[in-house]
Amino acid sequence: MTIEKQEKESVLMLFVLYATFVKRDVAILEKNYNVDLYQFNTSKKIYLFYAFIKQFFFLLFNLHKYKAIVIQSSGYLSFLPVIFGKLVKKPIIIIAIGTDCAKLPEINYGAHTKKLLSWFTNFSFKNTSLILPVHKSLEKSFYNYLDVKFPNQGIRSFNKTIKTPIVEMVNGYDTNKWQNKNLNRVKNSFLSVTFAIDEIGHYRKGIDLIVKAAELFPEYYFTIVGKVYLKADCPKNLHLIDNVKQEELLEIYNKHQYYFQLSMFEGFPNALCEAMLCGCIPIGSNVAGIPDIIGNNGYILKQKSNDLLKALIENLPNNKLTPSDVRTQITDNFPLKRRENEFLGHLKNF
After folding, report:
1. Residues of 113-139 as b/e, b for ≥16 C-beta within 10 angstroms?
2. Taking every annotated instance into account, which residue ranges of this chain make up the domain Glycosyl transferase family (predicted)?
């Protein structure tokens, strides 16, 4: 171990899945800190009690090593850390990613659709030191993309007396990695990169809308990358590609003209921003952070409707936006450096 590494303070990162967005935040923290990783495994509910016991003893013997704990999402994994943090006055930061701020029983989505998980989520938010939602809509927003039983969404909608500081910290993207390569794009081509392996995912990710659009526009070219579940037969002009490496995904982005992000709920979708950096003109749903990501450089589907999407696509021949326009929307507003500065700034303040 080098002297430089020994002199750095340490931070603990907690997560359920070691996803790409977690790896990105680890890389940011490693610029100033030693970062230890802790995975809270709840892949099966029968392991939950064991996961709590294991985490309890880890925190008991190791918490003193860390300047702060950063937790990716509120829920079961954050319960014990916020209690320990309160007891020993250790800063605990929760990054709110979306599911922990939502209640949509219509699609069985969101921590607050489950009574026990909702309690753990609210307890953690209420007792942590700082909450960093990836978009301001996750603090409080009104949902009108679809008629739902609980249109008021966000942390404050489910925890009305919360006093914990809540500060937006949007995602940031590597503008050098995701490039517009100025390739010839397939005319009237539409792409979506997603993960939807069951019927709930089929609707939540807007796969149903994409399938219908492919049926309505048989002369157009549609692609979905990722593991997806289809309720009906796949139209001939809808091409399904399994998960690919990021180098291949870069090429796929650059071959398509438009990008679909038609999710029924999504805090701050990474694939949308990557696609825009690669020059895909976005078509997104009117939920959470998607309208702010797209800004005036793309198209918003105001409500979930096959007819509205059909009308939007029919109007695309009048499109004046260029790949350069949509790339600039991300480079100007959501560069990786912005998240890096904000994230390290928050930790420095403790």
Report:
1. beeebbebbbbbbbbbbbbbbbbbbbb
2. 203-323
d(CA 85, CA 215): 54
The pLDDT tens digits of the residues spanning 159-186 come to 999 999 999 999 999 999 999 998 889 9
Structure tokens at 1: 């171990």
Residue 223 φ/ψ region, left for φ over 0, alpha for ψ in the -120 to 50 degree band, beta for the rest = beta
Q: Looking at domain 3-172+336-348, which CATH architecture does it have?
A: 3-Layer(aba) Sandwich (3.40)
Contact 100, 74 (CB under 8 A): yes
The pLDDT tens digits of the residues spanning 57-83 come to 999 999 999 999 999 999 999 999 999
The long-range contacts involving 289-297, CB below 8 angstroms and separated by at least 24 positions, are: 289/134, 289/135, 289/137, 289/138, 289/170, 290/261, 290/263, 290/266, 292/135, 292/137, 293/268, 293/269, 293/329, 293/330, 293/334, 294/329, 295/329, 295/333, 297/321, 297/325, 297/326, 297/328, 297/329
Using alpha carbons, select from 137, 251, 127 the residue that is nearest to residue 183.
251
For the entire predicted model, the pTM comes to 0.90
Domain 3-172+336-348 and domain 186-333 have a common topology:
yes
- Give the DSSP letter of residue 166: B
| Tokens (6 digits) for 307 | 């007819």
Provide CATH code, domain 186-333. Answer: 3.40.50.2000
pLDDT in tens, 114-129: 999 999 999 999 999 9
Main-chain dihedrals φ then ψ at residue 171, nearest 5 degrees: -65, 155
Share of the chain above pLDDT 70, in %: 97
Look up residue 233 and give its two tokens. 């037969």
**Phi, psi at residue 19, to the nearest 5°?**
-80, 170
Helix (H, G, I), strand (E, B) or coil at 337: helix
Q: Taking residues 154-158, what's their average pLDDT? A: 95
CA proximity to 33, closest of 79, 80, 71, 65: 65
Give me the DSSP letters along 248-309.
HHHHHHHHEEEEEE--SS-SS-HHHHHHHHTTPEEEEESSTTHHHHHTTSSEEE-SS-HHHH
Domain limits, the chain: 3-172+336-348, 186-333
